[in-house]
Amino acid sequence: MPGASDGNTLALPSPEEALQKLRTENALLRRELTETQNTTTQYLQNVAHQLTAPLNAIKWSIEAIKDEKVPISRKTSLLSSIYSQGTILVHLIKNFSLMSNLEADHELGQFREQPERVDPIRLAINLANDFDPQAREKGIRIVIDELSFQQVFQGKSLLAVKNLIAQALSNLLENAVKYSNLKTSITMHAASVKLEPSGGAFIGLAVTNIGLPIAPDEIKTLLNRGVRGQFAKQHIPAGTGIGLYIASRIMRIHNGIVHIRAKNKESTFTLFFPESRIK
């Protein structure tokens, strides 16, 4: 009989069945395309909003500095604000550049930069200086726990791609400044831990702050692309949710992880590296 299978011949679908299958697949592709377009549009709107904010702040500060009626003390404060907003702008552009590479399926692991010896405490100090003006505007102090670096790293260096690790740590610090309570402290410190199930030793660079709480069920998803905590979205509606995602990708190519610990309003984000990268 036509279309029957005798064990040696494969039964073919009827033309009607094949057509229905094509229609179903086409509908699915159309739906996926629409979702992708909506996601891309939302992402670009968030990018535009985040870039516009510091640019406008810089513009307003420069206009105020040009005003002869503004006192010198105020102009000094405005210059500090321009530096702060410039730091934010550079940080955002670097993140968006990395994100563009990811969207184009260029893995971070394909970066041509080679690992080099990085002084962990010097890296922390440099980034703290970059974000200090922004933090001061909110009355926030950035503290470097130098003793923890001495105890954990014992004068050794971190073998890593410096620019990528600096960006990952910047993402943690920028989030801490953004979401910290006014007039609190942010601590940058070193940490060590043995992670299960391998029991291998890991050494990390950590950022601890007091600010918006993180729900326990959110911790597992915060490293995913586009995910933000509910309190973060309420506090600052505009955001892309790519900072932690990029940090996680960067750590992955260093055989490490981003570890998150949150209790009440205190949160600690740590870049953990395998002990083999400490030289």
Short summary of the structure?
The protein folds into 2 domains: 89 residues, Helix Hairpins; 163 residues, Heat Shock Protein 90 (2-Layer Sandwich). Helix content is 52%, strand content 17%. It is built from 7 helices and 7 strands, in the order ααβαβαβαββααββ.
Order of helices and strands: HHEHEHEHEEHHEE
Number of strands: 7
Tell me the number of structural domains.
2
Task: Give the termini separation.
Answer: 74 Å
Give the assembly state of these chains: single chain
Question: Could you tell me the mean pLDDT?
Answer: 85
CATH class category of the largest domain: Alpha Beta
Strands ordered across the widest β-sheet: 2-4-5-7-6
Walkthrough of the structure:
It is a single chain. This protein is α+β, with helices and mostly antiparallel strands and 279 residues long. It folds into two domains: 15-103, Orthogonal Bundle (Helix Hairpins), CATH 1.10.287; 115-277, Heat Shock Protein 90 (2-Layer Sandwich). The chain is 52% helix and 17% strand. The protein has a five-stranded mixed sheet. A two-stranded antiparallel ribbon has the order 1-3. α3 (120-136) runs parallel beside α5 (162-179). The longest helix is centred in the N-terminal third of the chain and has 52 residues, at 15-66. It is globular and about 85 Å long.
